[in-house]
Structure prediction request, 253 residues.
Amino acid sequence: MNQHTVTAIVTSYKRDWFFVDRALRSIEEQTRPPLEILLVDDNDPASAESKDLKEKVRETHPAVRYLSQGKNMRVARARNFGVENARGDLVGFLDDDDEWVKDKLEKQLALFDLHPDAGVVFGMGRIFSEDNVKHDYTWQHCIFKEHPSHVDMLANDHVGSTSHPLIRRDVFLKLGGFRHELPAVEDYDLWIRISAQYPVWGTEDVLYLKYMPEGEHVSGNPKKLFQSYAAIRDAYLEAYREHPQAHTNILYN
Prediction:
């Protein structure tokens, strides 16, 4: 059995404390606790949001390492900053309005025991929405593959949301982390790069809960998505030319 250590990273920007507190508690209550929890504050340090967040984290979650980049750098840079400061050999992210289920890390560490050469392991998420478009369903389940190949990942994002994968820190740093210049789906881009060099393994178990207020949907901003999928297609154009079906899928996206 591998003795992995996990750094859990939460990035926060102008989020109500109720949600941040819920996210942090879901990490603290894991059946297999992480080595450490990092809270990366992406607010301007001079702002009221930042001062309030810093105070509440220190009062309510004293074991959490509070970090600030010094200014708002947006989520991709904030996550990269968290990994640069991580002490664990595995890193996992959690959006500040989502939750991890209690045995999330336990199940994923078991996957790493089975597949020690994996670059990333992932699972499923449960979506809860206040409107009638998305309500209590398992995200990504329709395209789940236990062991998606690089070609599979070129065709579809079989991993999905950043709130649940567990990633080898050395792999993350070697590949340069998230491409912050992408306006969206920078996580999908990273999964493609990882799958090109390392095995990817998943479980159909639900590992995280995502809450979506009315009017917010997984699809995101259409313009940003178009720009980002176009950038991904261009970045891996040679591979897409070798795999026509994957090329068709990315063009559809």
About this structure: The first helix runs from residue 17 to 28. The chain has a mean pLDDT of 91. Strands lie at 6-12, 36-41, 65-68, 90-95, 98-100, 120-129, 137-139, 166-168, 200-212. The radius of gyration is 18 Å.
